[in-house]
Amino acid sequence: MTDPVSLASVSASAEIARRQPQPGQIAIEGLRDFQNLILTRLDELGLPTEDVLVTLNQRLALLATTEHALTALNDEQRGRSAYIAKMIMAGSVGLFDAALNYLWDETVIELRKRVIGYDLSYFYAVAEKSESRRKELKTAEDLVKLDDAKLLSGAREIGLISDVGYHQVDHIRFMRNYASAAHPNQVTLTGLQLADWLETCIREVITLPHDTVVAEIKKLLVNVQAARLDSNYLAQTAVFFKGLPGEQADTLATGLFGVYTTAGGEPQTLDNIRDLWPKLWPYLSEDTRFWAGTRLARFLANADQAQAVLARQLIDLVQGGSYLPQEIKVTEMSEAIEELLNVHLAWDNFYNEPRVARRLAELVGQQGAVPDTLVREYVKNLVTVFLTNGHGEAVAANSIYLDLISRFDPEQASLALRAFANAEISSQLQRPLSRKKWDELLNVIDIKITGRPERELLEAVRNFPGTPDQLRLTSSIKRLLDAVPH
Questions:
Q1: Does residue 29 belong to any structural domain of this protein?
Q2: Domain check: are 223 and 188 in the same one?
Q3: Distance of alpha carbon 240 from alpha carbon 27, whole angstroms
Q4: Highest mean pLDDT range out of 260-274, 311-325, 371-385?
């Protein structure tokens, strides 16, 4: 006969076991008890309790999906991911805005590690376009002086993250700026959003392997600065240059130019770059060639004589006199264009943009005259600031931007129409406000688009069924884009 006490014990044990959360299962009762404890204490202290924490179901959604996101990390990567741990902790208690902040902190730390492991001097030469700011960037500790937008853009330019990855991570950077605990906001985040962004940062930054081209460029940079290169290596490198994608060739040139014109370079490094520069020059875009000439003018204007001498050496080495600026106005306008983008990326952009925009309008004049060497940079940066940061509009500057755009000639209007092909502008077009401004831009430049290929492209862009950030990835749009004279 079975003992009734034993039966009761077994039944009680089974009930306890049933109530225990299984491995990987989240106990909602525990979360609810903790929430009630905290909210009760806040109420006793006379503090608000409404809309302080996100709902339990959203927290459960985050906790239930983070395990999948973390599967891509190995044990060593997990062990050093302190800010991911803080993200999950903040999310579990219902502070999603703080969780997003921690996720971005982890992403920035990993990006900086990649940069340090690549080549700092090369990265700084590519990422920081301002000569005065670049002088402050020398060591790994100086990476904190570089804002997140430039860190991310520079990493994309040198190939440490992919073009698609940049597009996605830049959106997370935007959300961190306007939806996290970094600033007061009223944006509501969901658990699935956070888990998806975590997976994106892991996939596109933390675990993304270097591609072959990036690895070869890194090897080249190490060799350039290590010892004098022999003729066989130089011949092999010339073949490597021939197969470089256009954007990578431009980025490499920008970096080598920056390393060469940095005061105090080692003699063998300068010799190696002098050997490599003529071999790389045939594969550079017109934009990059004009950029080199503009840098020389900037050195002269800033009385950086040593750097000006070095820059002129590289330009003369490839008989690049046609790419030199014609007058000092180029320097002033270049500074204004660059400063406009810098203030646009800063926190106080709404206050500073009108001042810089007015200065640029004065330099451009009523006829909209822009030196040939600056047209592409001018149009790109003007389109960038006109599309806004996606969060709000610099109202006092907007009328100036519209006036400048209305002064575009057909060539400048064509460049503005094709701006969606730029990775950074395409990333902006993910945001609703920027899409609205894009439609406004198309309306302003419509009358200025005169060529048949440009008109066909304009019509296709306007009739595109998707969102404008997808334009650059669509084969039919790419074909029309290729048909437009560049």
A1: no
A2: no
A3: 57
A4: 371-385
